[in-house]
Amino acid sequence: MPTGHRKLLEQLAADGLTTIFGNPGSSEEGLLDEVARFPDIRYILGLQEAAVVCTADGFAQATGKPAIVQLHTGVGLGTGLGSIYHAFRRQTPMVVLAGEAGVAYDGMEAHMAVDLVGMARPVTKYATRVLHPASLLRLLRRCIKVASTPPCGPVFLAIPQDVLDQNNDEPVVPTLVPETRTLPEPALIAQAAEMLAGAENPVILMGDGISRSGGQAELLRVAEALGARVYGAMVSELIVPWTHPLYCGMTGHMFGYASAQTVADADAVLISGTYVFPDVFPLLTSPFRPDARIVQIDLDAYAIAKNHPVSLGLMSDPKTTLGALATALDERLTGDQKRAATARRERIGAQNTERVQQEKDADADRLRQEGASGPARMSRFGMALADVLPDDAILFDESLTHYPDLLRYLPPTQPGNFFQTPGGTLGVGLPGAVGVKLAHPDRTVVGLTGDGGAMYTYQALWTAAHYGINAKFVVCHNQSYRLLKANLVDYWRGQGLPPDEYPEDFPPPFDIAQPAIDFVTLARALGVAGARIGTADQTVGVIRQMLDHQGPFLVELDLSAERGVARPVAETSETATGDCPCS
Ligand SMILES: Cc1ncc(C[n+]2csc(CCOP(=O)(O)OP(=O)(O)O)c2C)c(N)n1
Ligand SMILES: [Mg+2]
């Protein structure tokens, strides 16, 4: 009779989950030994657990299916926890398995024994431990189901080796994931339409729950029917093309007062696939106008009215519900209301176009002044990359404070081609790109990271080299933790300090310039070729080299010219951090 090790792999194969991302140890040796004999499973080795989990995260984002992660008992799980937290925030379907010696040793407090479930619980949807060979596959299927059911997220299963060593006669059957294509009864759709119709300043806050349900087109129909400004809140994927007239960017991730500005004047707000507001320092009072009508649509009942009251909450699938809402709005809106929505759309679109044009003009002026041998700049890099990147290329973006200058030239326009890292954990960009490239080997995948972020998970490059995963990487080398500088400017302001009294210097720990990290040499040491862009005129050639190279390739983009943070000369309502997707 097969052992639990074998049956666990058979269950994964039955569910089409044939890739395991892991880092092994002594208490998973039985499982790893079985993997070696089980050709239907591929094991992707990572050298550090944070990188392992983030690689799995990218793979899950690209495939939409739960990624399987294997970690080594408490020490491996502990190293991976910060990255599991990221997966938790961004609702990545993921099953984390950690081995341990065995339940037989519970009374011994054996070497390396620890309460694994207790460690994992705060950052997972569900965490449990297999205690008996008759319930190994039962619990594994439960984990796969919970991870895959919206709101998706990581789950944890402790797999004691002595339980898996035993013979296992559980049947292998595909895991059932419940269907969630639900639709509220027509009266509720009508009520939602009535609340939103005729609004003069409607706003939509959208999140990843919409991508998960495939409701991007339906959201756009509603936005266009209403002429509503659309903001992403805790969003990591493209929902509305960033070039669409109504797309107005992301809410911030830091300060509630800044995010609240997006809805301050709104007389109607539609929230879907996210919650209000995912800030580090959230506003404790309601951000909404007292007379605003607020409709929230989500499969996640917990997200609805989570922090602030709403007028109507619909626990249902975003795609079907937004589709029905768009149809109801179409029928209900008067000719005048439709004309007003179109006019609003044109006005908002014109404002957005003008803002982007002004930013592009400023970039062009600066590049002209600095000349060809001037410093490398993200704007120059973005322009050059946009010229040559294939249409179906995928960006995995953790360029952090540099992302506005990049995406001005490479605005995401198609669902599935763009991922960001809103979870707050640094080090997602490089391994994320490795995971995406593994899922889409035929497409160009470019992962961007800050220099700070890179150093949390640089080991992912070794995995790319080891398996020949041909992803491209860009390190934005600004020699600093620049976002922390921007945060501090906002903090000074929040403390009521007048701008002319802001300290001259930032705290020394915000600079990582000495010694300068040589990212190209570091990449080479891990088996990945690379080149550095030190001046503007090197940009085009190095990008060509990156894309032409057969194999993974890393570009170190010297952004030391952009290491500072503009300090406001006077009181302003703009935050220095903007909508940077980290903290
Ligand atoms: C794992 C982890 N450690 C620390 C932080 C705190 N933190 C937020 S932003 C930041 C600096 C990021 O620097 P870098 O990646 O170089 O991007 P930049 O801000 O320079 O654009 C730090 C250290 C974090 N978010 N995650
Ligand atoms: Mg940096």
Please provide a written account of the structure.
By secondary structure, the chain is α/β, with parallel strands linked by helices. The protein folds into 3 domains: 4-165, Thiamin diphosphate (ThDP)-binding fold, Pyr/PP domains (Rossmann fold); 186-347, TPP-binding domain (Rossmann fold, 3-Layer(aba) Sandwich), CATH 3.40.50; 373-562, 3-Layer(aba) Sandwich (Rossmann fold). Helix content is 39%, strand content 16%. It contains 21 helices and 18 strands. It has helices at 4-14, 29-36, 49-63, 73-89, 116-120, 136-148, 161-165, 186-196, 208-213, 216-226, 256-260, 318-332, 335-370, 378-388, 403-407, 429-439, 451-454, 460-467, 482-494, 519-525, 539-548, and strands spanning 19-22, 42-45, 67-72, 94-100, 126-129, 154-160, 202-206, 229-232, 247-250, 268-272, 293-298, 312-315, 394-398, 418-420, 445-450, 472-477, 529-533, 553-558. The protein has a 6-stranded parallel sheet. α14 (378-388) crosses α21 (539-548). It is globular and about 70 Å long. It starts with a helix and ends in a 25-residue tail after the last strand. Bound molecules: thiamine diphosphate (TPP) and magnesium ion (MG). Thiamine diphosphate is lined by residues 82, 400-402, 424-426, 450-453, 456, 478, 480-484, 582-583.
